[in-house]
Amino acid sequence: MKNKLLVVGTMAYDAIETPFDKVNRILGGAATYIALASSKFDVDCGLVSVIGADFEESDLKILQDLDVDISGVELVPDGKSFFWSGRYHDNMNMRTTIDTQLNVLENFNPIVPLSYKSAEVMMIGNLHPRVQLSALNQMEGKPKFVVLDTMNFWMDNFRSTLDEVIAKADLITINDEEARQLSEEHSLVKAAEKIHTMGPKYVIIKKGEHGAMLFGDGKIFIAPAFPLDQVIDPTGAGDSFAGGISGILANTDAINFETLKSGIIYGSVLASFTVEQFGVKALLAVTSKAINDRIEKFKSLTSFEWNDKQKNI
Amino acid sequence: MKNKLLVVGTMAYDAIETPFDKVNRILGGAATYIALASSKFDVDCGLVSVIGADFEESDLKILQDLDVDISGVELVPDGKSFFWSGRYHDNMNMRTTIDTQLNVLENFNPIVPLSYKSAEVMMIGNLHPRVQLSALNQMEGKPKFVVLDTMNFWMDNFRSTLDEVIAKADLITINDEEARQLSEEHSLVKAAEKIHTMGPKYVIIKKGEHGAMLFGDGKIFIAPAFPLDQVIDPTGAGDSFAGGISGILANTDAINFETLKSGIIYGSVLASFTVEQFGVKALLAVTSKAINDRIEKFKSLTSFEWNDKQKNI
Questions:
Q1: Which of A67, A299, B36, B56 lies deepest, with the highest CB count within 10 Å?
Q2: How many Cα atoms sit within 13 Å of A68 on the Cβ side?
Q3: A312: pLDDT confidence band, cut at 50, 70 and 90?
Q4: Which residue in B229, B265, B313 is closest to A40 by CB distance?
Q5: What is the pLDDT of residues A154-169, one digit of tens each?
Q6: Taking the domains of chain A in order of start, what are their residue ranges?
């Protein structure tokens, strides 16, 4: 029996402009990237999301072909799918949102299918905390492990609902500025300590091109981003990262600090492929061999020996 | 016989303001931090610098007590020492220079003492490229290994002289934005490749709280910054880092990618102590045991195992 991974999040179309190229309408959304990333593992992944009548049959088929269960994806017949349009600047670290059309997302009431109410791992993508909480409350008891993603917008505007969700999460993934905002601490070490007291036993701080930090069990693990010759489209990097982590967690019996470390490495490697092409293209195409090769390289990037002569100084 | 390390750089007094505290006049300067950091190693370190009549006897004694040779430090009897004053903002990553008084630095003509003209390792701190070049040209042949530090100001205003210096360096240490400026490449992988063609076989890109990257011999090594509960004063972090690297290099017979990796770890650990107190205080006081403890912790921060089950996905 495979473990079940329930993913709650957006499915979308994106228009993306970078210094190199431009696309008008490609498959996107957090849940899409998370499901594609976690499908690299032998897990039973189910999606809870919402789409409009404009959502392409062929895009749903991409997920179905990977055995992703889309029975929890609500189709609103007279609605349009969530649409996001953005522009990346020269340095690829900054982006400007040109347009956000919530469309069917505006009145989204997630329905968790019966068969996923007892999923071992629940990955809640960046959404309105009200929606996140509603999905969580439909689960039969508390899932073994809940991963939560969120962002500064919800901290600014819906903090009390967000705090309720955070209290139920085992792992929260946020970026460094969000960690500082959430905790009101500048040091990321102190920020993580404070966030632990809000609920999550584990905290992953995402730093984009600077990598990620994991805090938990009194320990810290730091991983760089995989260094690349060129970044083509950063969209979906964070969600591919979260999907890799969720995939590892759902594929593991014992979830602990070491499993989370593996999750970070795997998620970082998947994200490194994602950003090398527009949209989900590279994530879809990448082979197990290519992934494992990059994981081996990852090891050599950070490992070092401290020899005895140096020790005797 | 100890190997010789020649350090060329500034000695200064600093006035520093942080969100926590303020000091009006404390010992500073790149050469000071570099010499103090490298003195943790069994090397014969000589300084080339310039000071004014206001330079405290007790501050020179700090260096002499650590067997740093200060015969190359010129005293200008009617001059004042280089003075820098700056303020760190809330996030400690940004600083504003309030005042820079070059004073004796303005007409600095470095004189390398005869006994250091054949130093094995030469560490050239951030200075006017003209001064850096003058010191380099006084060496008897090319030193075994030349480490060069510089910054964007010299790239903006004295690029052709700077290029001459860079051509003679074996290792250059710059931050990420400077690497991008110098190479006109955004990807740090490509930036390092381009900088190799300008001279340096090795490139270290400093990213402050995000750590450092080493490029050379077709390989990449990435180290995080040591995570701290609190940063009190970031002044001197980069120079402590460079000093740790120079100390390791001068203490090693074979300088290669592995030695440089050790240098980065050692330099990062020294920098992590430096920033925990104002000025040189923590760097001076830190014991070998405390350094080695932190190096051990450093290892556990980044090492990971990739187990067989995961490999079989």
A1: B36
A2: 30
A3: very low
A4: B313
A5: 999 999 999 999 999 9
A6: 4-304
ipTM: 0.90
Q: At CA A256, angle to CA A2 and CA B264, rounded to 5?
A: 125
Token pair in block for residue A83: 């649409």
Q: How far is A78 from chain B (nearest CA, A)?
A: 41
pLDDT digits (tens, 9 = 90+) for B136-178: 999 999 999 999 999 999 999 999 999 999 999 999 999 999 9
Cβ of A186 and B305 within 8 Å?
A: no
Rounded Cα distance between A229 and A224, Å, is: 15
Chain B, nearest residue to A218 by Cα:
B301
Q: Where are the beta strands (DSSP E) in A196-244?
A: 202-206, 212-216, 219-223
Chain A residues close to B92, C-beta within 8 Å = 186
pLDDT in tens, B113-124: 999 999 999 999
Q: With an 8 Å Cβ cutoff, are B310 and A186 in contact?
A: no
Distances (CA, A) of A8 to A159, A280, A300, B182: 20, 18, 35, 45
A4-304 under CATH 3.40.1190.20, yes or no? yes
What is the distance between the alpha carbons of residues A38 and A250, in angstroms, rounded to a whole number?
9
Residue B312's pLDDT is: 45
